[in-house]
Amino acid sequence: MVKSISIWVGMLLVAGVLLLSGGAHATEDAYVSLQASLENFAQSHNGVISVSFTDLNTNKHIGIQDDIKFNPASVIKVPVMVEVFRQVLDGRISLQDKLLMRRTDVIGGSGFLYTQKVGRTYTILYLTEIMITHSDNTATKMLIDHLGARNINKTMRELGLKDTVIGSSNLLRAEGLNYSSPRDMNMLLTQIYHGNILSRDRCQEMMSIMTRQHHKWGIPKYLPGSLRIANKTGTLNYVKNDSGIVFFEGRPYVLSVFTTKKDPNAFGLMWVPQVSRIVYEWCVASAPNNI
């Protein structure tokens, strides 16, 4: 209860500073206030909470230890999706190409493809969609093996991502092999939002797939259901992560929240949406009709 009260007090303080500092065109003081609230939240919990925030209007960035390398879990599926569309653009593959599901591809934990009969074929487009919307691990393995992990890693380096590496296509056995950071994921989603990679149409297509996300325990949990959000969650026993684009009217933003704790429990299932709510309330407080 005490922590819950402190969160809301922090958000009220953010709102007060915003109202005094210029509202919709947030001043440096307003960003400092948001950063202080996020730092306070991160420091008041027994675990690692890493936050990356980017205001898509101003490109103002706030990072709370956001260069820490995590096992990104299923958030790594966003770079895989980017590589799919890169290879399509290069003419190396087609979205209508079909891949055969082999027994060695079958991975449980998330999704539903692992329940289907081995030997069936699926289009790359279908595999890409369920990899994101249903976080399907089997679809992910099929795509990574077909695209090539080295190609994905090379593309991420070319896009400026320094902490993102895929070392295993089996996401349930990727500890110490797969890495990313909230800062990297924010950089990637910011480029997608602005249409700065591949082509604007492909970026729009990727965001459209992400808006059909079925897993809403993270960034969207405490936000209005009418708010358009393109996100990708990632969860293992000891990590709970989410990265997404929030299409807040007047101030769209990118938010990535990665969390970890040694004792496996539901910690991040609450921490991630609480951080998301702090940022959203900051945006609400600076909306023109609240000035």
Question: What labels describe this entry?
Answer:
single chain; 291 residues; alpha+beta; Beta-lactamase; five-stranded antiparallel beta sheet; two-stranded antiparallel sheet; 14% strand; globular; disordered N terminus
What does this protein structure show overall?
The chain has 291 residues and is an alpha+beta fold. It has a domain at 73-175: Beta-lactamase (3-Layer(aba) Sandwich). The chain has helices at 2-21, 28-43, 77-89, 124-133, 137-147, 149-158, 182-194, 200-211, 267-285, and strands at residues 48-55, 61-64, 98-100, 121-123, 229-235, 239-246, 253-260. The longest helix is centred in the N-terminal third of the chain and has 20 residues, at 2-21. It starts with a helix and ends in a 6-residue tail after the last helix.
Layout of helices and strands:
Elements: H1 2-21, H2 28-43, E1 48-55, E2 61-64, H3 77-89, E3 98-100, E4 121-123, H4 124-133, H5 137-147, H6 149-158, H7 182-194, H8 200-211, E5 229-235, E6 239-246, E7 253-260, H9 267-285
Antiparallel strand pairs: 1-2, 1-7, 3-4, 5-6, 6-7
Helix pairs in contact: 1-2, 1-9, 2-9, 3-4, 3-5, 3-6, 4-5
For the record, the CATH class of the domain at 73-175 is Alpha Beta
- Structure class: alpha+beta
Strand order of the largest sheet: 2-1-7-6-5
Give the helix level as a range of percent.
40-55%
Q: By CATH's scheme, which homologous superfamily of the domain at 73-175 applies?
A: DD-peptidase/beta-lactamase superfamily
Low-confidence stretches: 1-24
Question: Which shape, going by the Cα principal axes?
Answer: globular
Q: Which whole number gives the mean pLDDT? A: 89
Main sheet record: 5 strands, antiparallel
Order of helices and strands: HHEEHEEHHHHHEEEH
